[in-house]
């Protein structure tokens, strides 16, 4: 972890401008083609959601702006961002799970299996004292085109939110909706596009990246 040199940051003016907004977040909804990932996970009997969560986390950690967080008057740059993942219990309620980002998928997959096995008895822990996360959720029943989040106001955190939706086949693609909500004080649409380009590249090349 280190502190960003705000005074010499190219986005200094934009940072101070958007930082004062009551709600400085903006949301982008789009779709990504996960056809190659589906083929790989089916052939190897791997959870599709575990796989795209890992690839998303890989893209997050390789996009510098996704690792920026506001702490008081400083901007922290984390070396690693972990995942806060919402999972559904047998009774239909949700629980928050926390997963360390790993360099290889095998370790991440084992971690996911371990967390899943304990889901029913895990305490409801919001971990609101942590900001070295991306908050993730999934709506596998809805192919959404817009999305909003529940928030306390005024907004005091700078943690990105990412939501995945129901896939739809279209021509030779399998499109999965994705919603990305980020703090405008820390990044612009250009940086979200960079993240999405990385994520799509990883989805397209999932066999080489996820291979055990």
Explain this structure to me?
This protein has 212 residues and is α+β, with helices and mostly antiparallel strands. It contains 6 helices and 10 strands, in the order βαβααββββαββββαα. The strands form 2 sheets. Strands 2, 5, 6, 7, 8, 9 and 10 form a 7-stranded mixed beta sheet that branches. Strand 3 and strand 4 form a beta hairpin. Helix 3 crosses helix 5. The two termini are 30 Å apart. The model has no long low-confidence stretch (mean pLDDT 95).
Helicity range of the residues? 25-40%
Q: CA-to-CA gap between the ends?
A: 30 Å
Strand segment tally = 10
Q: Beta-strand level of the residues, as a percent range?
A: 25-35%
Shape: globular
What structural category arises from helix and sheet content?
alpha+beta
Mean of all residue-level pLDDT scores: 95
The biggest beta sheet is recorded as: 7 strands, mixed
* Poorly predicted ranges: none
Order of helices and strands: EHEHHEEEEHEEEEHH
**Taking Cα atoms only, what radius of gyration do you get, to the nearest Å?**
17 Å
Query: What is the tally of helical segments?
Result: 6
């Amino acid at each position: 972890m280190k502190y960003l040199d705000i005074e010499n940051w190219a986005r200094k003016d934009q940072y101070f401008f958007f930082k004062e907004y009551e709600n400085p977040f903006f949301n982008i909804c789009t779709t990504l083609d996960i056809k190659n990932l589906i083929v790989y996970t089916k052939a190897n009997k791997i959870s599709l959601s575990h796989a795209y969560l890992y690839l998303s986390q890989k893209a997050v950690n390789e996009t510098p702006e996704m690792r920026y967080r506001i702490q008081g008057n400083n901007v922290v740059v984390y070396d690693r961002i972990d995942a806060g993942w919402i999972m559904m219990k047998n009774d239909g309620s949700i629980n928050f799970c926390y997963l360390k980002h790993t360099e290889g998928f095998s370790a991440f997959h084992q971690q996911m299996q371990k967390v899943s096995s304990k889901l029913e008895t895990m305490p409801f822990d919001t971990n609101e004292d942590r900001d070295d996360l991306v908050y993730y959720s999934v709506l596998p029943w809805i192919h959404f085109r817009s999305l909003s989040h529940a928030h306390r106001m005024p907004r005091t955190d700078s943690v990105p939110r990412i939501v995945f939706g129901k896939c739809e086949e279209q021509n030779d693609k399998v499109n999965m909706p994705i919603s990305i909500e980020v703090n405008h004080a820390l990044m612009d649409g250009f940086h979200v596009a960079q993240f999405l380009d990385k994520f799509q590249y990883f989805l397209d090349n999932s066999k080489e990246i996820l291979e055990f």
